Amino acid sequence: MPQRTDSAPTSGTFHPLDQISLGKIVQIRERLMKTQAEGKPVFRFESGDPSFAPAAHVTEALVAAAYAGRTHYIPNNGIPELRKALAEKVVRKNGLEGVKPADIFVTNGAMHALFVVFGSLLQPGDEVIIPDPMWTEVAENIRLAGGVPVGVGLRADRGYDYDATDIAAAITPRTRAIFVNTPHNPTGAVLGASSLSAILAVAHQHSLWVVSDEAYEDVVFAPATHLSIGALARDNERVVSIFSFSKSHAMSGLRTGYVVTRAPVLHDRIPKLLRCTINGVNSLAQWAALAAVTGSDEASLTMRDAYRVRRDIMLRALEGIPGLRAFTPAGTFFLWVETDSSVYQRLEVADAAALSDSLAADGIGSAPGDAFGPRSADALRFSFSCDTRMVREGSVKLREALL
Ligand SMILES: Cc1ncc(COP(=O)(O)O)c(C=O)c1O
Q: What pTM value is reported for the model?
């Protein structure tokens, strides 16, 4: 008799996917689409997708690769040209000393990078410390790998700093890693050298991994600057860095990101997960990514400046509205707004989730705070990654709706 090797679903049997949500932001998006289908204008403040097209040299490289027939299987870990260029980039720009092409693993966006990193690091029951609030998919990828996300609350009165003392207090014998995200989605906080050094010290003291998600490294507003935690690590073997082309180069649909790690155990495991999930990122996207990383960064800087203008428009629109406290983001294209009962009473809604729902009915997108963590229910996240006109017009509507 052949042995079953699968675990076919039977009713009542736990399956790891049953604890993963379908995403609250997706539900809001669907609601907005419905409103749009009814012929009403919609303002897409719920999701973080750059409104820009990639730079011309990036699109040209993508098309040229297609015409050159670069459409065959490619090396599992990424094309050598891209891995070499990325190794040089992270040494030059991020200060990750000694990184070689072999330390780069090209993934299907930073999302897939999180999947392969947690899948390679965690054993069932291992805990990973994450900020609360945090972009939902981080916790989901930890759970998918059998791990347990442990949230550390961030506080508005501390500028949403990710405090090393709070992190240390959350460590248990099961803690395996500290997850760091700067610039941070959803608050837009950018961590400085002292916060990152303190986190590294805690990680070092407890022999923990540090997983650093730097998807928004290029969306930072002066005087803030982006600092990679890996640049501060004396021995960066236990620091795993994750980057993406989605936001820096407006290449979200091309699904290209990468992991940087010098750890032998990850050099061994990550290629296995890459092989069994994607067997290499789309070849054309990789040639486009090569053009993006080796070409001019003018387009990235132009986008960053436009995001700053949009941020200020939205901030102004929310000024002085009772019951709302908007945080000025130093990076990302998100506005994190804490809400209190006075705004719920005035607008006759039960909570922030209901408020987000009622805004969606008016065609205004937002992401409810509870999508980002259990401590963050009294908040809304508004994205200003849609085009400037939509931000301008939508901000007027938003103010009217909230007053
Ligand atoms: C903090 C953070 N990390 C990673 C990602 C994933 O980006 P992508 O998979 O498009 O590279 C996102 C996307 O919104 C994000 O906000």
A: 0.96
Other C-beta atoms within 10 Å of 52: how many?
17
For 323-368, the pLDDT digits (tens) are 999 999 999 999 999 999 999 999 999 999 999 999 998 999 999 9
CA 229 to each of CA 2, 93, 263: distance values in angstroms, whole numbers, following the listed order: 50, 13, 16
Pocket of ligand 1 (CB under 6 A): 48, 109-111, 135, 181, 185, 213, 215, 244, 246, 252, 257
- Ligand 1 centre to CA of 136 (Å) is 10
Q: Which element (helix H / strand E) includes 150? A: strand 148-153
Question: Per CATH, the architecture of 63-294 is what?
Answer: 3-Layer(aba) Sandwich (3.40)
CATH class of the domain comprising 22-53+299-402: alpha beta
Euclidean distance between CA atoms 148 and 352, whole angstroms: 26
Q: What is the pLDDT of residues 237-279, one digit of tens each?
A: 899 999 999 999 999 999 999 999 999 999 999 999 999 999 9
| Residue with tokens 């076919």, as numbered in its chain | 8
Mean pLDDT of 13-39: 85
Which of 136, 191, 213 to mutate for ligand 1's pocket (most ligand atoms within 8 Å of CB)? 213
**Range list for CATH 3.40.640.10 in the chain:** 63-294
The dihedral region occupied by 320, where left means phi > 0, alpha psi between -120 and 50, and beta the remainder, is: left
